[in-house]
Amino acid sequence: MHIDPAGLAVMDHLVGTGPATPSELARELSTSTAAMTLVIDRLVEGGHVNRRPHPSDRRKVLVTPAEHWEQAAFEHVEPLVTGIAEITGSMTAEERATVATFLERAVAAYDRATKM
Fold first, then answer.
1. Alpha-carbon gap, residue 44 to 10, rounded angstroms
2. Beta-bridge partner residues of 53
């Protein structure tokens, strides 16, 4: 989808929380308003978000995901989801249990390493 990590963070916030002003996004994602403007500009140019007038404050704009965004995102990840489903469907119960144990331990190790 040609979205950089900062753009993905914005999209994640918008999809999870709803429309936001650029200032709100900058605050939530711990960046400057100038940097956020550049991220939003790239997302608008890529057709991923829209700027809309704020309903109660004419001086502000709201950033919203483009109407097609969720469907487009799904189309990009659907082959991965299908592929993983095919792999797990072909595994024995014992193999799935082994993989599940590994993943649980890997997540726990990650959590321990990243908590400060």
1. 12
2. 61
What gap in Å lies between CA 37 and CA 23, rounded to an integer?
A: 9
For the full predicted model, state whether its pTM sits above 0.90: no
H/E element holding 89? helix 69-90
Token digits of residue 65: 């995901």
**C-alpha to C-alpha distance for 24 and 37, rounded to whole angstroms:** 12
E strand or H helix at 109: helix 93-114
**What is the C-alpha to C-alpha distance for residues 27 and 40, in angstroms, rounded to an integer?**
14
Alpha helices by DSSP H, 18-59: 22-28, 33-45
User: Could you tell me the two tokens for 59?
Assistant: 């001086």
Pairing of strands 61-65, 49-53: antiparallel
* Maximum mean pLDDT: which of 1-15, 41-55, 74-88: 41-55
Contact, 22 vs 63, CB < 8 A? yes
